[in-house]
């Protein structure tokens, strides 16, 4: 009698994510990460879609000087312009199709300001830094273009990582993938690396990805493909990465590993001790909020 091989069945995990609407710096945002049921996707720990299109007179965004540590910020614009200034001496205006990546390391501060009367839309993403580098030196890079390429069914603005054989390295860990996809046809499939976690975040248009309709995002694991059905010209963001595998703690603008780190970072910002640097700004520094309760680092998927 022959031996029947035991086959392992891998089931795709799907989580539907509803963005939380809020205001930040005078404009509207929809926040898709972090969520109670999903803290990270690969190293990605924070996802905001931002716009002033619903604001009277296309109000300016004014995010005053504020601190970060333990993370990299990645900004990608779809419309408008944003002036980035930071404590490392950088002063750069980012435009549509461009990328800013700022690695906070042990500490940095920055501001982001747009002009009123100009349509603004874009994405603000954070990637948690791994334990070996989360308290390293800060740095800033401006990329004047994405790793743009075309397929038969959709176009891609690659902002980080590797996708469909194309690469765009911005120095993030855990195979961090970031890509903005624009559909050319109404129905297609998106090949995925089944070893990565992925989240599909809506940007523009009405569509369904893997049975989840806009305006929701969808998180997928152990999946080698995602199906798309919807309006031609729709845009969505794909983020992906290897499971982060570390317990992290997020509070305000910080990503650390312990409660004591957060308390100390808050004190240093509030007392202007120098850890987060200084730069000239017409806006007052954003004060640190009160820490209302003690909390512990959380495991991530």
Estimate percent helicity.
under 10%
Mean of residue pLDDT values:
93
Q: If you consult CATH, what is the topology?
A: Jelly Rolls
Write down the Rg: 20 Å
Strand composition percent: over 45%
Characterize the biggest β-sheet.
8 strands, antiparallel
Q: Could you state the CATH homologous superfamily?
A: Jelly Rolls
Secondary-structure element series: EEEEEEEEEEEEEEEEEEEEEEEEEH
Ranges where pLDDT stays below 50 over 5 or more residues in a row are 1-10
User: Could you say which overall geometry the principal axes of the C-alpha atoms support?
Assistant: globular
The tally of beta strands, per DSSP, is 25
Outline:
By secondary structure, this protein is mainly beta. It is built from 1 helix and 25 strands.
